[in-house]
Amino acid sequence: AFPASTVPQAPEDPLFGLMAAYKRDTSEKKVDLGIGAYRDDNAKPWVLPVVKKADDILRNDPNLNHEYLPIAGLPEFTSASQKLIFGSDSQAIKDGRVASIQAISGTGSLHLGALFLRKFYNPANPPSIYLSNPTWANHHQIFTNVSLQLAHYPYFSPQTRGLDFTGMLAAISAAPTGSIILLHACAHNPTGVDPTQAQWTQIADVMEQKGLFPFFDNAYQGFASGDLDRDAWAIRHFVARGFELLVAQSYAKNFGLYGERAGCFHYVAPATASAADASRVASQLAILQRSEISNPPAYGARIASTVLNNGALFAEWKENLTTMSGRLIGMRAELRGLLEKKGTPGTWNHVTDQIGMFSFTGLSEKQVGLLREKWHVYMTKNGRASVAGLNSRNVEYVAEAIDDVVR
Ligand code: PMP
After folding, report:
1. How far is the CA of 225 from the centre of ligand 1 (A)?
2. Whose CA is nearest to atom 11 of ligand 1?
3. Which residues are registered as beta bridge partners of 162?
4. Residue 194: CB within 6 Å of ligand 1?
5. 76 CA distance to ligand 1 centroid (A)?
6. Are 218 and 239 within 8 A, CB to CB?
7. Is 384 helix (H, G, I), strand (E, B) or coil?
8. Cut 0.90: pTM above it
9. Are 190 and 380 in contact (CB under 8 A)?
10. Which residue lies with its CA nearest to atom 2 of ligand 1?
11. Interface confidence (ipTM) of the complex
12. From the CB of 184, is ligand 1 less than 6 Å away?
């Protein structure tokens, strides 16, 4: 018999546990700064107006059916995804050096990349993958699940609540040649702290000298700054320098397609390689895909593709992105301003220096606990607050709560 009795109880996912605790809380004042999903000023999920339009177009299409997509996904989706992240005039795309396959949002793209690396990157003696400390918690599981060894590089300085650039660079420099370095393309989760363009250039210098392999997690393009090109700068810089690299691309945040699981995984062959390399990689990705999911889900990719391939809708999408990123940037400014006005102990410039969905507040685990018990304000115990949970009606209350727990 299958020894199910030997299967240990796994702990609850901390983030989804937090969500459940928030739901159970009956206080009218409760504020959810936990899960990283955009909320509008009424604390409601927001269907992007451009997504509604694409949805209407699809629903009114008499030829729409529910057949399987090809193994590699919707071709017009993957080609538009390449252009979006690498730039429409990308030399790598023109050279045929990019192999792209539709995957299950960002998580599935990371997983497919992990699987691919484990199978083909020195399988007898696989390299370690270096994760930032801290990083999105799921990275640890995604890479250990395929038996890759994890290593870590410092990222966050608790003193400045900014980037520990010296520590990061030192650890990367010390990594053995061939190591994989996982990088957040923009809007680092959980810290909201990104390298500057000058710092990215230095990171690329070291990685080039040391022969390290970049794997970019791109979960927030356009959502971070509101500018798609700006948020893609780091990836495009590495590609322009001729690196061989991987990208996991998610459409959860920038299209608000969280549950539709639209994403794309890309392999870029080095500038010195030919299209043949990318095409062999594509053939192996298709084999992996077939055994994992056979073929990817269609609807989210159709929505994204409808927008990405239509000039007018694309322009409208950019406005929707500005609405989301603009609201978050505005909330950061308001929270910081309120805390500074109250004279809340400490400095609060990091709230506006950080970017994207999250602010790494610097609050201790104890303070986070107090926030939850006394004030019904929920954030993860490492002090990460989802800025999307703030709105014009609760930001003063949150500032009051933070002020109380840090005093
Ligand atoms: N990477 C990072 C850094 C993330 O923050 C997220 C979403 N929380 C993801 C990947 C993947 O998200 P999804 O699978 O929903 O696209």
Report:
1. 17
2. 106
3. 157
4. no
5. 23
6. no
7. strand
8. yes
9. yes
10. 219
11. 0.98
12. yes
